[in-house]
Amino acid sequence: MIVESPPFSRDWKGLDGTWTKRFLLAATELKPELEHANQIKLDLERANSSLNSFWTSIMSDKEAKLRSAGESTASTPDAPDSTVPGLRRAYEHESSPSPKNVKEFDVKDRELFTKRFEKMKPSCKWRLNSGRYVEDVVHELGKECKYHNLVHSFIINPEDDYIRSHFTDEELNEIVYERVRNPPALDSDLLKFISSFAKLSTAEIRKELNRPHPKLGEGYNPKTDFPYNHVKSTVADWILLLEADPNPLTLDLPEAWYRTNVWRCIDIAFSNIPYVVVVGGERAGIASTERKNLFRTLANELPTQRKVVGKKGDGYVRSVGQRLVDWASSEAGPYWEGIKGTKLLQECGLVLPRQLKDIFMSLAREVKFDEEKIRAIDVPGFIHAGAMLITTKLDCPKGYICRYTIHPPYEVYADVQRFDQSLDALVAILYAKNVIVRTMNVVNSAGGGVEEKALARWKTLGVESKRKIELADIPDCHPTPKKKKQAKMGKNFDVTK
């Protein structure tokens, strides 16, 4: 069982680790009281002999079987019988074709999902011209889903095939264009400055970098002229990569390298906005933490619940100071596996939009769910995988539904002759920044009738009265699905007993 099960590989070092874990599990279940002593004996045995000599007979036998089986080893055979239940479970986990560690949408999930739907007022739902309500369709979709999906958080992506299959083309167009807001325009002079770097060689681009510019001279104003400095420093960073030998954009490099060397332009984009920074490095989201602790109370019949840490993201655009506020979120990965890559499907299709809705709900509470303001809130998101960038956006155009939009991918190309297309990524970041700034203005503005609102508030300030607690009708994200617990591999093992 230990060596006859997949994987079928000639990477003996990798197989050593796999086989040892299986052996540890088997021995621990047979004699759990000897865990520690057995582990020491195993470590000594393997340390005193080379990897090859430790598994010599097994390797020889395995190699012979691989040669005789030929291409047929690519298929997975039936697992041999085993008297060790834990090893059987481990084998089934390794060979199972079902999604890894995915928790199904269970009965409790469905009860909460339906409860939130039933609290929605029909008069406040998003009614399409066809007469159908978007919320009703989403609820039906959610009941059909076996696994956690965006619809369970009442988020829809109009480009998702599952969503598209349940709406007509006319309904989809209505969903896409309802209260759609284009990003604030970029200054035409700034765009002209960016276009000056659309050259076919690094020498030509360097010539433009060294050319004096009135916005970057002695009269430089960091508050108004920073975008020009941002563009110039980003172009300089990318040119260094194109001039390197070998070109690092053609190599297999870790996620942290791309964040530091390619996507630094996102980190520094907000340097001219006071108290706003891009926080990276798997930090917990402020809005996500807020959602998970929203109904935390003092001890009563039950003890006070431990404070829960929010979802850790790869980056957040955050206001810092006495109060922390998130405005946007990003997820990152080292590789681009295509639009349908597993990591991209998961993070761009589920993880990121949930983070964005948490941010939206936090901002909606900030404006006390003012109807006019919440319809004007846009929450951008970034996905960067290697040298690829995808920008996204979440808003709430009507009813209780949040709309999630994914834009086409951009790339920082390894070929200098495509540098004009690389600049598309920079322009997309600048547009996303403008959207974030616009949302900041919406949330932080007092709005009209400031004096009247203040007077009305002051007249009741400190007056004892019965207060009606009103919860927002727009539902929060559905609770984060828990990963299935795996059978633990024993740490200790005795190969001699």
Helical content (DSSP H or I, runs of 4+): 40-55%
Q: What portion of the residues fall into strands of 2 or more residues? A: 5-15%
Q: How big is the Rg?
A: 28 Å
Number of domains: 3
Helical/strand content category: alpha+beta
Please report the total strand number as a whole number. 8
Give a quick account of the main beta sheet: strands, pairing sense, barrel closure.
8 strands, mixed
**Mean pLDDT score:** 79
Could you tell me how far the N terminus lies from the C terminus, measured between alpha carbons in angstroms? Answer: 18 Å
Number of helices: 19
Overall form: globular
Which consecutive residue ranges, at least 5 long each, have pLDDT under 50? Answer: 47-53, 71-98, 465-471, 486-497
Short description:
The chain is α+β, with helices and mostly antiparallel strands and 497 residues long.
Describe it.
The protein is α+β, with helices and mostly antiparallel strands and 497 residues long. It folds into 3 domains: 12-95, no CATH class; 107-177, no CATH class; 188-295 and 306-444, no CATH class. Helix content is 43%, strand content 11%. The chain has 19 helices and 8 strands. It has helices at 12-30, 35-47, 51-54, 56-69, 85-95, 107-118, 134-144, 161-164, 169-177, 188-195, 202-209, 226-243, 255-261, 264-267, 286-292, 342-366, 371-374, 419-444, 450-459, and strands at 155-156, 276-284, 312-319, 325-333, 379-385, 388-398, 401-406, 410-411. Strands 1, 2, 3, 4, 5, 6, 7 and 8 form an 8-stranded mixed sheet that branches. Helix 11 (202-209) packs antiparallel against helix 12 and helix 15 (286-292) packs across helix 16. The chain is globular, with a radius of gyration of 28 Å. Residues 47-53, 71-98, 465-471 and 486-497 have low confidence and may be disordered. Residues 89-102 have a biased composition (Basic and acidic residues). Residues 66-102, 478-497 are annotated as: Disordered.
